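Two folds, back to back.
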Amino acid sequence: VQLQASGGGLVQPGGSLRLTCATSGVTPDHYATGWFRQAPGKEREGVSCITNDDGMIFYADSVKGRFTITRDNAKKTVYLQMDSLKPEDTAIYYCNAQRGNLLYWGQGTLVTVSS
């Protein structure tokens, strides 16, 4: 099982990025898939996820209205569209997939929001 996160980079405040989590060895719609982030000196926190059974979507309050998570089951890929980025969104972003006791993590991609 592999999860490959990509799409991070340096962006100015107010800008946009789209993160991609390409999976192999799992069927994303059979797992709860989502994104977490960890800022310097802070604990990892949940950003957004899609459940496996009914496809319900959840967002952290800090990103509601700015971030959008989507899943392409045919491509086995999960995306995180991030708009109106703020400096406080700076972090390493990780994708994961969970089903029961199975939990898989990607390697992380760095997002830096700075002018």
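---
second:
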Amino acid sequence: QVQLVESGGGLVQAGGSLRLSCAASGIIFRINRMAWYRQAPGEQRELVAIISSGGAPNYADSVKGRFTISWGNAKNTVHLQMNSLKPEDTAVYYCNAPGSGAWGQGTVVTVSS
């Protein structure tokens, strides 16, 4: 099994930046893709960004040019750099390892106007 733990959420003013991190543990040798999702109050969970070990990252249109997903120095870590944050980015952000069924507990990002 894979366990995922997110960190780095918080409260920031519009236009600010945050960096989220996700650390995977357990049977991680099978992980070759990692993704970030978010869920705003009353909304469905949506894909924000996804990265694979051999391909270019993909982003939701709403975050292109502002967010960057990257692997950490350790293979089992992935980051989400969020710049030029907007109030509509407010959500609980979740880390996911596609295919593993594993989700993190979520980290709250709140962007004030």
